[in-house]
Amino acid sequence: MKAYLVSCAELPTSDGDDDALVDALADVGVHAEWAPWDSSADFASADLVVLRSPWDYTDRLDEFLTWCATVPNLANPLPVIRWNTDKSYMVELADAGVPIVPTTLLHPGDRPQWPTGEFVVKPAVGAGSKGALRVAAGDHAAADAHWESLGVKALLQPYQSAVDNHGETAMVYFGGQYSHAFTKSAMLTDESRLDPSGTFIVERLSPATPDAPHRRVAEDTLDAAATLLGLHRADLLYARVDLVTGSHGEPLLLELELAEPSLGFRQTDHTAPMRFASAIRAALATR
């Protein structure tokens, strides 16, 4: 059995977080190779093509989705990637009853009424916090300038101040089953942390053990997404649910990552890559 792990030209073997994955797959009889999505690799020859770090797609979304449509055995599947690479899905999840960070969609040409407190403006198509701006209360001039510079659909969200002390809790699932979690520190204040590849802002990560309310919201999020997509949760080879703490202490969905999430293998036990390899092997068995 053969699988491709998909990266980008700037990071042909990803950013190091997935280093144990090739060996973990070999242990269960799957030969895996890294290849940038826009390379000459014969993706059609693989039994499974797993998106891992194609992080330059944000500037080439149409081209990337066109490529995805040519790959016979893509994971996650093409409809999932189309839906999840545009963060407008947040509004759909809110309509489905998922507690989210309040989100307003901004379209090019809109003249937004900015909130009075701190808020965040970020592109609807983006990865690794690139293009996201935390705006200080009342600094509407900065917001106007950033909004004008973006020139694309964006999300407007009130800044959740608990992130400063507690960060985000990222919960990882393989084949619809919980694997592990890690915490990401606030990322919206220091552009100097841009990775040399230019594809993402370097995160400060640490292991996490989510409490019951976080677990419930993450589970509800996956169930709602699967329903919206007409899938079973098990059809999602990988998923990362990013939660923050709201002003009343409640967990809120910040993002649901189904396209190309970093999975935090270096922040958890050494068996996590084995769990992912097993999920990949199970996905191969259904094809």
From TrEMBL:
The keyword Membrane does not apply. The keyword ATP-binding applies. Keywords: ATP-binding, Nucleotide-binding. One of its GO terms (molecular function) is ATP binding. Residues 90-285 form the ATP-grasp domain. It comes from the Bacteria. SUPFAM superfamilies: Glutathione synthetase ATP-binding domain-like (SSF56059). This is ATP-grasp domain-containing protein.
